[in-house]
Write a structure and sequence with these properties.
This protein is α/β, with parallel strands linked by helices. The protein is built from four helices and three strands. 38% of the residues lie in helices and 12% in strands.
Length: 97
């Protein structure tokens, strides 16, 4: 299988709609290896979907794109951007891990 950056990843919002209908309170966009523009477009679509359904939406690893898309926040792992740096973005929310 080719590396993820080299393959076309199908983006189906129906998967996210089904998750909301199934009772999900929050959604997270976790896509590695996509160009920033494509990731931002997906994030904006999901942020709109979540807002329309009163659900929370988070972008994995990217507080910059979370802010630009209107997400509720960004999920950061232990090896990602330091929390102190992420707090500079308006989307920042702190939660226990």
């Amino acid at each position: 299988m080719p590396p993820q950056a080299d393959r076309k990843v199908i983006f189906d919002t129906n998967v996210y709609i089904d998750a909301i209908r199934g009772g999900a309170d929050a959604l997270q966009l976790r896509e590695k290896g996509l160009p920033d523009r494509e990731l931002l477009e997906r994030a904006r679509r999901l942020a709109d979907l979540c807002r329309a359904n009163q659900k929370l939406f988070f972008v994995n690893d990217r507080p910059d794109l979370a802010t630009l898309s209107g997400a509720n926040g960004a999920h950061l792992g232990q090896k990602d951007l330091p929390v102190a740096a992420a707090r500079a973005f308006p989307c920042w929310r702190s939660a226990p891990t």
